[in-house]
Amino acid sequence: MKRTITLGVAGLAAAASLTGCGGSDTAPICSSVDTLKSSMDKVNDVDLTAQGGAAALKSAVNDVKPDLQQVKTDAKAEFSSDVETVQGGYQTLLESVQALADDPATSSVSKVQAELQTLNEDVAKLVSDVQETC
Questions:
Q1: For the whole prediction, is pTM greater than 0.85?
Q2: Which secondary-structure segment (H or E) carries 22?
């Protein structure tokens, strides 16, 4: 009887752990990285050369922050290294975008573009790592 109970509990634990892996019940991290990716797509769609481009970029980058925070909350320890890398890249980009918006004449657009490219790569790695578990 004890063996049956142990196997039953183990079976329930295994079933519970699979809930986030498929079907319509996905783990919260799966949807939060999708939302982060969508926010980053909006950042990438900003035309820096257009009038008001720096302000539009600043707004789009600021919109990423709550999505990144949600990913951090949902990721817990499993993806903490990837999340920390993304957060560092986001902070670096945010500071450069702020400088660009404050004084477009002295800030380097190429620096912002390079930092954005790095952040895009970091986000892509995080999304890929998470999607392997969804």
A1: no
A2: strand 21-22
